[in-house]
Structures are given as C-alpha cells and as structure tokens.
Amino acid sequence: MSIAFAFIFGLLFGVTTSQSEANAATTKANVSQHLYKGLKFLKYPQVSGLTSKSAEKKINASLLGAAKKSYKAYLEVKKQEKEAKGDKNCKDFPSSCHYEYQSLYKVKYNTSGKLSILYTDYQYTGGAHGISAVTSYNYSLSSGKQYKISDILKTKSNFAKVQKYAYKYFSSHEPYSYFVNKVSDVPVNKNTQFYFTKGGIYLIFQEYEVGPYAAGNPTIKIPSSLYK
Fold it and tell me: Could you tell me if 44 and 117 lie in one domain?
C-alpha cells in the first residue's frame, strides 16, 4: 500500500514539477541578441524557451521583420549619403555628410507572460544632431499575439482619461511645461508607443512630441486602475 502511494505521489509530483516548469517557460522568455546580416549597428532580439513553439515562432518572425525594416531604412540613408557627397557643402564640411544609422533595443518587461521590447532607430543625415524614433513591440508569451495600444485602451473614454492624466503631469513639470499648454499637446492615440510594467503601462513619446530634444523620449507610467 505504501509503495503504491509512493508511486502515485511520485507520479503526481512529477506532473506538478513539469507543469511548473512549463508555466515558468511561458512566464518569462529567454532573449538573445543577433546582428542583422552581421552588421554590428543593426541589433535585434530573438526569443526562446517558450512552452508554445507556435508563439515563439510568431514573436521571432515579428522581431526579425522589425530588423528588416531597419535595414531598409539604413540602405535609404546610405543612398542619401552617396547623393549628398556630390554637394559643395560636403566638400567644405565633410563631417556633415558622414551619415549614420543604428538600431538598438531594450527589454523593458519580461514577466507574467508578457514581453515588451523597445526598438530605437537612430539616424544622422547632417545638421546639429541626429534623430531617433522609438517603436515598442509587446507580446503575449502564450499565444504570440502582438498587443496594440487599442488592446489596452479599449474605448475612447480610456484614451481620453489617459491623455488627460498625461497632460496633467507634463503641463506641470519642466521642461515639458514649456511645450504642453493644452490637452491636445499630449498625443495619445493608436500610434502612441507603450510598454508593460507592473501595475500598468508606460507611454513613451517621440523626440519633440512633448518636450525639447534634450528631453529625449519622455515616459509616463499609467496605472491600470485608470483604464480597467
């Protein structure tokens, strides 16, 4: 009887352990860095260790697609550089015609079955400084679904509440208060970038959207109580 009990207990314990390991794999992804076409300035991530290989495949295809977009943008910048080098200004100020392109990423959230990765594409095409654009990629680790902000802010009322909340912050804090004078100065719409965080999301804005260039990409945490 005790042997049978031990066998059943061991079987149940083994199942529980396996299930626990599966849940752990779904809860958090392993993220590795890759270079697109071996170019050290075009970095992109890939995930592994997910319970659902279908989800893993979807996420990796999406992230690879982002790298391909960056590569196309890089080729366009190099084309512009080649054309610009025939200009007289380039001969007088050669450094201003040394164009640059770089793609980087940061893992902003990787727990509780969700993954947020923030891409930054930087380019310099002359002038005082370059400019960056940020794009967020947010996924469900169980299904591979890519979340849009409309999946989080599901109604017009949600968007309006979040916009007003962000406006109150930026309009009362320097250096943003010099740029934000009315609610519409803080764009919160389907194109607004975001990433997951504990207890809500962060909105992240592009350069110059709500502040000066020196402010970079301003962020603000939006508690989930505001939109749930």
Answer: yes
- In the block, tokens 């975001």 appear at 194
| DSSP per position, 67-126 | HHHHHHHHHHHHHHHHHHTTSHHHHHSGGGG--EEEEEEEEEEEETTEEEEEEEEEEE-S
For residue 51, being part of any structural domain is answered with yes
Q: Are 99 and 189 within one domain?
A: no
Last residue of a domain, one of 147, 164, 186: 147
Beta bridge partners of 176: none
Closest CA to 108 of 131, 138, 133: 138
Domain final residue, candidates 121, 147, 173 = 147
Structural domain range at position 102? 28-147
Whole-model pTM: value is 0.84
> Is the model's pLDDT at 95 over the cut of 80?
no
pLDDT tens readout for residues 134-187: 999 999 999 999 999 999 999 999 999 999 999 999 999 999 999 999 999 999
Residue-wise pLDDT tens digits, 20-75:
444 444 789 999 999 999 999 999 999 999 999 999 999 999 999 999 999 999 99
Contact 99, 79 (CB under 8 A): no
Amino acid at 4: A
